[in-house]
Design goal:
The protein is an all-alpha fold and 303 residues long. It is built from 13 helices and no strands.
Amino acid sequence: MINFYYAYQPIIDFFLLSVGFGYSQQIALRAGVFSIATAGFAALGAYVVAILVTRYDVPIWATVVLGMAVSGGVGFLLSLPLARLRGAFQAIATLAFVQIVLSLLLYGEDFTGGALGVTGIPRVLNTWMLLAVVAVVMYVMWSIGRTGLGRVFDALRQEESVASSLGVNIGRYHALAFILSGAIGGLFGGLQSLYVFQIEPHNFGFAFMVNVLTVVILGGRTTLLGPIMGAAIMAILPELARPLAEYRPAVNGIILILVITFLPNGVGDEIVFWFRRRKTAKKAQALAAAQKEQEARDAVTSS
């Protein structure tokens, strides 16, 4: 087991980071916010941690909290102008936000290091710390799903007009979704910077956005299992497709198309939904059997 861990530690760590970024993306989509701003939030969290640790000797875990706070605060500010936008317009606006963040990081050479980024970041993060943080975030997501907040998010995703007619303040809940998405994205962006020694603006560019979206689309947008399954597929797929390394982007695209076509809810969500349907069917069968037994007893009694 230990040998397996050391052999595949980079893949395990990549999987855990992908799960975290997946939850940042999922919480926005679950609330009906078509946001792809996770890359921008992750970049902000990563640079806050990297700069404070390497230049100002701020305690490491304090920088992670500050990175979360900055990204969550920026998420709130971002939600203000986007409150009136929906669908593709929201996606384009959040894409513009990511490009603005990356441009500031690229051209703010005196502060951010420009294209070279920030180097000499101490690597203090290990797999067990990542696992603990992912477990905490999973608990938070699970708790949200079991409260009224999760039900409001689901209502906004399914039919915003109905939620509005029931008195739901759409702008406030969208802002809350942006804040949560920003905080989670900033958290895992900061953790990533404590894992890779060096960060650069291109680390959070288009490829990063595609990977995060792919995790949620492959896994699912509504259940706790969704990002886990999506991240697992993204982590394992390159290993399985090594003989097709030259065609890996094409293989990834084909798998994504197949999942969207035949499993539109995502692999993780489909598994959860299947178990729920099976549980509901068993309850219905048990209820029908109990009714038949009661009818038979009533027939015997009346006779």
